[in-house]
Backbone:
């Protein structure tokens, strides 16, 4: 057990080292959610004037989307890094190590959980500086848990793709999967204002529950009835994509 | 020089088709944003001050085309940077190929890809219920503005590649595409943008390019916005080609 833990910590540290070793690769991922938040609120800010819009300010409404985007991009980046390791042969050496496959996966995915706090933190600092209301410590803690959970689910999905295609050229597939899951929700407007087709997708998309969970505190109060579906949805996503990723790891030919 | 430019353009196009994974994001990401913007922000057409359009898709189509063309510019830059990283550029320089053809070949390929991108979005729009109000002439206007703008964005990508000399730096300007678009009237009417985006949008050539294409799609073939769009696109193209040629000379001096 202790040896497993040491392996996980070592892999997580390796993942975190990427931020310092390849800052050029990390910076766009950190900045992108903030750029989206600023850009979307500049372009579509007047949307908040629509009847039935549940927030006073579009920027406040869109901040949780940016946090989840950061998690999605981080998860996708984890898959791209894994694909690079596969291309360079490092992953083959890892597979030869005397460590269980799920332990290796937890190490890889764990680094994504920590890294996703960087774009989310940067986004929040900019948002608060621009006047977004403080949602409270409880709401932020819940948001952190959900954002880390989504990063884990996205990293597991990206791992499945990386193990399947074994090349960095599959990066758009990893990014677009995460982006689709986040945008096909109540990302821009409340459910009542979505068009029929997008509303139907948002209703069955579990990320909608996660987004509404993160949005608590920013828009309205944190309630248990808004929290448990979000926690359940994130647990389901991590379990489902985690199982697929473990299956993919176990199928590696060693 | 014409033969060399065409030969290099054909090579660039063949390479692009051989690596669809680089080509697909040019249309996939803007299509995704188009779908989400239309699905999520459809009701915004009811906002006071929003111009009368049949649907938000009609309004957003020009934004998706502009976004796709900008991504095409990045893709052209990445391809040029990969040529530099892989040593093909040095072999080309060592051969008796006219220097200008090195830039023009890549830019010509970007024009062809831009025309394909414009056609893709027009067909997609029509399939999902948009109507091109300007008819066949309107389609030609959109195609002209889009192709010239795509040529300019391609030349900008080549210029950045010649200066940066590596693909990851060119890839790193991806978020900048969104910054430029968000501070233009591509996604939303200029009069409804929040400050300071509304001020910047008035000077942003992307506003004129997007509105030039939007006019025949969503409204009519009024010449003023179309000509403004064409002039903005041509201005970007000429300036970008000039800058790429300068960057090429700088690169040749350095080697």
Residues:
């Amino acid at each position: 057990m202790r040896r497993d833990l040491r392996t996980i910590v070592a892999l997580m540290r390796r993942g975190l080292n990427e931020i310092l070793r390849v800052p050029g690769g990390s910076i766009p991922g950190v900045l992108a959610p903030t750029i989206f938040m600023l850009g979307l609120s500049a372009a579509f800010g007047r949307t908040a004037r629509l009847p039935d819009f549940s927030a006073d300010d579009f920027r406040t409404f869109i901040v949780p989307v940016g946090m989840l985007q950061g998690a999605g991009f981080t998860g996708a980046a984890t898959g791209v890094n894994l694909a690079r390791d596969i291309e360079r042969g490092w992953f083959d050496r890892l597979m030869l190590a005397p460590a269980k496959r799920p332990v290796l996966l937890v190490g890889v995915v764990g680094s994504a959980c920590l890294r996703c706090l960087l774009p989310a933190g940067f986004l929040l600092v900019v948002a608060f500086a621009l006047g977004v209301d403080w949602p409270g410590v409880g709401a932020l803690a819940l948001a952190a848990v959900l954002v880390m959970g989504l990063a884990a689910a996205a990293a597991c999905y990206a791992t499945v793709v990386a193990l399947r295609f074994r090349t960095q050229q599959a990066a758009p597939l990893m990014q677009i999967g995460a982006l689709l899951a986040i945008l096909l929700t109540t990302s821009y407007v409340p459910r009542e204002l979505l068009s029929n087709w997008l509303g139907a997708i948002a209703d069955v998309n579990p990320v909608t529950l996660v987004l509404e969970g993160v949005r608590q505190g920013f828009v309205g109060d944190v309630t248990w009835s808004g929290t448990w579906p979000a926690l359940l949805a994130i647990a389901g996503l991590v379990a489902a994509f985690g199982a697929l990723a473990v299956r993919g790891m176990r199928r590696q030919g060693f | 020089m014409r033969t060399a430019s065409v030969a290099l353009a054909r090579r660039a196009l063949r390479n692009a088709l051989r690596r669809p994974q680089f080509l697909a994001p040019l249309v996939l990401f803007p299509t995704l944003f188009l779908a989400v913007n239309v699905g999520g922000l459809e009701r915004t057409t009811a906002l006071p001050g929003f111009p009368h359009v049949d649907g938000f898709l009609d309004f957003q189509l020009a934004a998706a085309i502009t976004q796709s063309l900008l991504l095409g510019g990045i893709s052209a830059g990445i391809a040029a940077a990969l040529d530099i990283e892989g040593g093909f550029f040095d072999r080309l320089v060592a051969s008796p190929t006219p220097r200008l053809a090195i830039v023009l070949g890549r830019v010509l390929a970007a024009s062809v890809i831009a025309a394909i991108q414009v056609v893709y979005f027009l067909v997609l729009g029509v399939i999902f219920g948009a109507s091109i109000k300007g008819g066949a002439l309107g389609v030609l206007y959109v195609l002209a503005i889009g192709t010239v703008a795509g040529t300019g964005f391609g030349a900008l990508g080549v210029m950045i590649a010649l200066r940066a000399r590596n693909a990851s730096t060119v890839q790193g300007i991806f978020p900048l595409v969104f910054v430029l678009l968000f501070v233009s009237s591509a996604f939303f009417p200029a009069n409804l943008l929040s400050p300071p985006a509304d001020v910047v949008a008035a000077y942003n050539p992307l506003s004129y390019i997007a509105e030039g294409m939007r006019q025949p799609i969503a409204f009519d073939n009024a010449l003023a916005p179309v000509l403004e769009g064409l002039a903005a696109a041509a201005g970007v193209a000429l300036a970008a080609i000039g800058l790429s040629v300068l960057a090429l000379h700088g690169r040749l001096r350095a080697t």
Summary: Chain B has one domain: 2-254.
